[in-house]
Amino acid sequence: MSLGLAGASTASANGLDPNRLFPADPASRTLAAQIYAGIKDLPIVSPHGHTDPRWFAENEAFPDLAQLFIVPDHYVFRMLFSQGIDLADLGVPRTDGVLSETDSRKIWRLFAENFHLFRATPSRMWLEHSFQQVFGWTKRISAETADEAYDHIADCLTRPEFRPRALFERFNIEVIATTESPLDDLNWHRQIRESGWSGRVITAYRPDAVVDPEFEGFAANVETLGALTGEAATTWQGYLKAHRARRAYFKSFGATSSDHGHATARTENLSQAQAEDLFQKALAGACTGEEADAFRGHMLTEMARMSLEDGLVLQIHPGSFRNHSGGVMQRFGRDKGFDIPTQTDYVRALKPLLDAVGLEKDLSIILFTLDETAYARELAPLAGVYPTLKLGPAWWFHDSPEGMRRFREMTTETAGFYNTVGFNDDTRAFCSIPARHDVARRVDCAYLASLVTSGRLDEDEAFEVAHDLTYRLAKQAYRL
Amino acid sequence: MSLGLAGASTASANGLDPNRLFPADPASRTLAAQIYAGIKDLPIVSPHGHTDPRWFAENEAFPDLAQLFIVPDHYVFRMLFSQGIDLADLGVPRTDGVLSETDSRKIWRLFAENFHLFRATPSRMWLEHSFQQVFGWTKRISAETADEAYDHIADCLTRPEFRPRALFERFNIEVIATTESPLDDLNWHRQIRESGWSGRVITAYRPDAVVDPEFEGFAANVETLGALTGEAATTWQGYLKAHRARRAYFKSFGATSSDHGHATARTENLSQAQAEDLFQKALAGACTGEEADAFRGHMLTEMARMSLEDGLVLQIHPGSFRNHSGGVMQRFGRDKGFDIPTQTDYVRALKPLLDAVGLEKDLSIILFTLDETAYARELAPLAGVYPTLKLGPAWWFHDSPEGMRRFREMTTETAGFYNTVGFNDDTRAFCSIPARHDVARRVDCAYLASLVTSGRLDEDEAFEVAHDLTYRLAKQAYRL
Amino acid sequence: MSLGLAGASTASANGLDPNRLFPADPASRTLAAQIYAGIKDLPIVSPHGHTDPRWFAENEAFPDLAQLFIVPDHYVFRMLFSQGIDLADLGVPRTDGVLSETDSRKIWRLFAENFHLFRATPSRMWLEHSFQQVFGWTKRISAETADEAYDHIADCLTRPEFRPRALFERFNIEVIATTESPLDDLNWHRQIRESGWSGRVITAYRPDAVVDPEFEGFAANVETLGALTGEAATTWQGYLKAHRARRAYFKSFGATSSDHGHATARTENLSQAQAEDLFQKALAGACTGEEADAFRGHMLTEMARMSLEDGLVLQIHPGSFRNHSGGVMQRFGRDKGFDIPTQTDYVRALKPLLDAVGLEKDLSIILFTLDETAYARELAPLAGVYPTLKLGPAWWFHDSPEGMRRFREMTTETAGFYNTVGFNDDTRAFCSIPARHDVARRVDCAYLASLVTSGRLDEDEAFEVAHDLTYRLAKQAYRL
Q1: Distances (CA, A) of A252 to A189, A246, A311, A317
Q2: CA-based nearest residue to A30, from A471, A403, A452, A466
Q3: How many domains is chain C partitioned into structurally?
Q4: What pLDDT was estimated at residue C6?
Q5: Bridge-based pairing state of the strands B320-321 and B340-341
Q6: Residue pLDDT, tens place only, B407-438
Q7: Inter-chain Cβ pairs, chain B and chain C, closer than 8 A
Q8: Domain shared by B129 and B217, yes or no
Q9: Same domain (yes/no): B374, B413
């Protein structure tokens, strides 16, 4: 049932104005609300994300507020850290043996005392929406309300209707994709399937560990890939066969896409001899930085060729400078909020791939960016002409009301709506999924209403496009 | 007469709201409409474009809807192609001998069935404006209305009031510039002049074929240039003389500007010996890529020096990666929607030219960009201080409501209005010219109204600036 | 007293709408005005600027309108120059011995005749606000009113209440920072202190002349630094000691910050041996461009280390291509409006500095940019995680209503409000200081009101944040 979501449009609370994110002028606002009313209860299609399939396999209760909303969420702890709060005090585990805080109530209080730091951020919207819509907590978070909120939600978490599968159903999720390495055995996915539960949780193929020569343990990973598939994966042909086999295995657990998060959008279309040569160097740990980069770029083209065979949609997520702080990497490890966007070129970078397969109508490549300057200059012009290319939604730091607005304003005029793919929540914060989709739906409805008010779209079209952006395009683009 | 245009402000139809593109809040909207009312009927000044002078020379009927609106318009066919529709099925001629569709009604139907792809694009606004204001067709284009629309407009096209010269007059065009190569004999222009028709159609000097060492047939083109001018064009001095002669010839057919569409904004100010050396290498086909680029850059400075002598306005249109898809280039040739914008530096690139001639008050250089990031960062600061520099309007992919709004918001505060040059339609789609100018006028009026409403401009000034942006600045900047 | 400022909200005149810069829709506008009413009379905190301490030391009358508003203000004369008006005719002194105009009334008339060039620029807002609020002149500037305005303001300038200290007090300035070279003796600051006047005028440490090997007279400057401090400044250790001593001297005159305006954001963390080697090369005038750049980059890290000791806040102002026109540099010298922004990378450039000191909670580094593309892509993500980093306000060409709006829209969602530092006026135009702060306050109130109207911030929070942005954050970030 979708009442949890639907409630947002009638009930008001701290930060949850029923007309939030709609245009300010009354005519556009009224129209936006009407368009939104028509799509707010549509099922959630979540084709790209990072929820843990174990949740749905085991269906155990989530532990507590801190473990649910703070410790695992780099959006949250990075903001607190930026204001001088220790990651260890927020419970973020250290990799050097020093102990971090484990008292969840203490962690929660520290967060609650500093809740003002999140003013006007999407984290604030997601958190308040989750607290209210998922747990029925409607007061503002603060030092004063911290304990009451903690207890309220702790109580919820003990109840069956707050277990993962119950929430999945309450959130009205039609399908959700997780993301796994080719080296993952997908046993949680197997367990979900074998449980007989009707929730549709699928995997996606994320091969960084076995296509990036600079990934920790690359050579060993390739050996494991060989062992998993029975292919001679340390030969070039065996390696490609192993990918094909593993992709087929992932498809058997519902995968409809692969995902590639390189530092740049570089692609290459090397000869097989050149590729083989780089592959052997990579296994030997002898690649220069440039050679590693070329190999990664070539593997995108190989993956695209495999997609032509097996139909997996290819997602390219470039442009993040990973683990920017040496000190944090050393003490806390990867993925601690220190991935910083960089300038990203697409026009020259994608040409080898596009010259190889860019006109293939059966291939679908979805491009994302952390560099908004590419929207109007490069991405919309590319997606607005190449039949293989579609634009992924505003992503990561840009997955926010202003970011989503800029995405539409800078891509629609050149690429239209139909070269975009609906919304991705791209999150591991399960309880925020309805909130994130709700923000996207509201921003799109606001944009559509403004188009109508300014005479750029007819009203009947706005209703149809809203449905497309919310539901149809995601299913179509991801072949769900 | 301008009634065709004027009608837009009183009649409503699909996509043609009389208040379209005006601000949403009632006060700004009313003011925008008032400002617009004062300038909407001003004559069209079109100082940069790609209409075919043959139309006005021969004044024959335009063939049909597909040949008028689809086959020649890369904005239109690129969007359809991006969704998997073959260019050949849209009638785009192949260069490899394979036949493309020639049944115009069939092409039109294919377009009409897919008209929804253009939602919220400027193409949609231009097309609907043309259908309604030029041809009196007011229903929405769709599979259902395709044949009726086709017949309606086919009927129009047989009538004398839809011939090129009649439309030129109906569109209230005061002057229009076409664009020709120095190798063009300008015979269509001669024929227009000799016909005694009063329409002012002028040419512009676009010397890519004879200044770009990488242009197909560069050496032969230079020889032809010599033959046309009687100069020894394969010597450096003769080559420069030939340019001077050809510019004078273009001036005799009304040219007031030259136009330069290099891949970057690079300029050079080489010694004459260095330039001569590169020129001889270029003729011998022996330039490296770097040398060809340097030669193009130097020729901009030579062209600027000639402008100081003959008064032609110099237009620089950089930043397009031409013919991006190898496959499409091979099968369909140049200019098939695969020109993609790239990052463009102006600050370092223009310094050699500006150090040579940038302070000359009699020289006028108009800068365009496909990289909007340069507006506030580079172009407005440069145009806001160098007396030679002016900013061309939002261009190509940015010639759209959002693109024009961003242009004003990102350039006005630093460069003001008076370092801009009014609107260019830059189009070969003749029937869309009133639509394009109307969009620009509306967006400017909306912007001006918002400035007044927010206390940044007095009301009387807004009316004056609207007139300047619509009419006076284009005439002044292009010396028309 | 702040009545001068407060008047703006009740009196209307040319360009001074009491609701200027507020949102257009009535609900947001009313709320913006309410929020503004709560902060408009707060004292001005001006932690970064270029006013002349001599004004406050000597407290003599300002000379005349031209010397006050035109001759020293590159915002003003660059716009006039861009339209073909000679800098010499505007009284800008030449460095080549040729005389410039000295008749201030004549200069003023030339400006007044061309006042329309400033339409919709921030200069226009600042000038009109100053004329009205400081001098009580409310007519629009034009050829017709030029003489009357000149006489009116000339009369004001003779009166004691228009002397620098009286204006300082009328402007309700709580503290203002000037900017001086380490080679400055700070005698004006000494004179202010010894005068017993209560106005708080502090200095800031701007060491370009002694940290940039390419600065005119670098080696001689370092010798002077040694002489001033009694340190052997031509040895590496002595040079560092001399900096420490000079910073302490600046602190004794109130300095709480240093300021660094390199061409790029490059930092280095060299070994002491490498740094010493570069330093000796620099003294010998033997640095390559690359080495000079590396030395500047390393000195930022050294300055950061000193900040850890002495608590000065480190400001980084990169990205300006200085003195772009060779011809203007030759005839008029530096700082004549020809500093042009360039693309600026922060992610790679700052890594050496950040790896060295980026996690130090006692260090405060404020980043500025002339490249707005870095706001959402690089600066907000960096400031939103590194505890040392804060974002300076929209700067220079972007210190304008649209620029400030873009700053908030592109940084808040990732960095929040509390990683920003309030407003800097960064000006030498003393009379424009209330105007500039007023623009910033209004734009921030408009932004906050829009957040409330769109359900992204609660109303009580908006009032609190407005106070923070106007007053508290500047004091806290600059340790004032």
Answers
A1: 10, 10, 13, 24
A2: A452
A3: 1
A4: 32
A5: antiparallel
A6: 999 999 999 999 999 999 999 999 999 999 99
A7: 135
A8: no
A9: yes
C258: tokens are 């240093």
Q: Which run of H or of E encompasses C239?
A: helix C236-252
- Residue numbers of chain C with a pLDDT score lower than 70: 1-15
Query: In this structure, is residue A311 part of a structural domain?
Result: yes
Instruction: Give the per-residue pLDDT at C49.
Output: 97
The distance of A90 to chain C (nearest Cα, Å) reads 14
Is the pLDDT confidence value at B10 over 90?
A: no
Q: How confident is the prediction for chain B on average, in pLDDT?
A: 95
Q: Chain B contact for C15, CB < 8 A?
A: yes
* pLDDT tens-digit series, residues A241-275: 999 999 999 999 999 999 999 999 999 999 999 99
Contacts of B118 in chain A (CB under 8 A): 416
In Å, how far is B179's CA from the nearest CA of chain C? 28
Same domain, A278 and A389: yes
Long-range contact set of residues B269-273: C-beta below 8 Å, sequence gap at least 24: B269/B298, B269/B301, B269/B352, B269/B353, B269/B355, B269/B356, B270/B294, B270/B298, B272/B236
Containing B169, the helix (H) or strand (E) segment is helix B164-170
Tell which residue, C9, C450, B297, B179, has the closest CA to residue A17.
C450
Chain A residues lying within 8 Å of C409, measured CB to CB: 402
What are the tokens at A434?
Answer: 């309805």
According to the model, what pLDDT value does residue A4 have? 35
| pLDDT, tens digit, 9 for 90 and up, residues B240-250 | 999 999 999 99
What domain range is A350 assigned to? 166-477
Separation in Å, CA of C92 to nearest CA in chain B? 14
Q: How far apart are CA A224 and CA A186, in angstroms?
A: 15
Which residue of A117, A140, A343 is in closest CB contact with C418? A117
Q: Which chain B residues have a beta carbon less than 8 Å from that of C341?
A: 347, 377-378, 381
The closest alpha carbon to B366, from B395, B344, B324, B345, belongs to B395
Residue-wise pLDDT tens digits, A109-162: 999 999 999 999 999 999 999 999 999 999 999 999 999 999 999 999 999 999
Asked if A200 and A149 sit in the same domain, the reply is: no
User: Which chains have 3+ CB pairs within 8 A of A?
Assistant: B, C
User: Hey, which residues 442-461 in chain A have their CB within 8 Å of chain C?
Assistant: none
C382 touches chain A (CB under 8 A): yes
d(CA C75, CA B385): 9
| Chain centre distance of CA A460 | 31
Q: Do C15 and B457 touch (CB under 8 A)?
A: yes
Position B329 confidence tier, pLDDT thresholds 50, 70, 90 = very high
Share of chain A above pLDDT 70, in %: 97
Using the 3D structure, point to which of A160, A187, A213 is the last residue of a domain.
Answer: A160
Q: pLDDT tens, A263-322? A: 999 999 999 999 999 999 999 999 999 999 999 999 999 999 999 999 999 999 999 999
Distance CA C262, CA C278 (A): 17
Indicate whether B397 belongs to any domain: yes
Report whether A119 contacts C461 (CB < 8 A).
yes
pLDDT reported for residue C15: 53
Give the minimum alpha-carbon distance from A444 to chain B in angstroms, rounded to a whole number.
13
Alpha-carbon span C466 to C332, nearest angstrom = 42
Summarize the confidence of residues B157-168 as an average pLDDT. Answer: 98
E strand spans, B317-446: 320-321, 340-341, 365-367, 389-391
Task: Name the band, by pLDDT with cuts 50, 70 and 90, for residue B346.
Answer: very high
Contact state of C342 with B417 under an 8 Å Cβ cutoff: no
pLDDT of residue A97: 85
Residue A381 shares a structural domain with residue A331: yes
The reply to whether A331 touches chain C by the CB within 8 Å rule is no
Is there a domain that residue B26 lies in? no
Q: Strand A313-316 and strand A257-260: pairing?
A: parallel
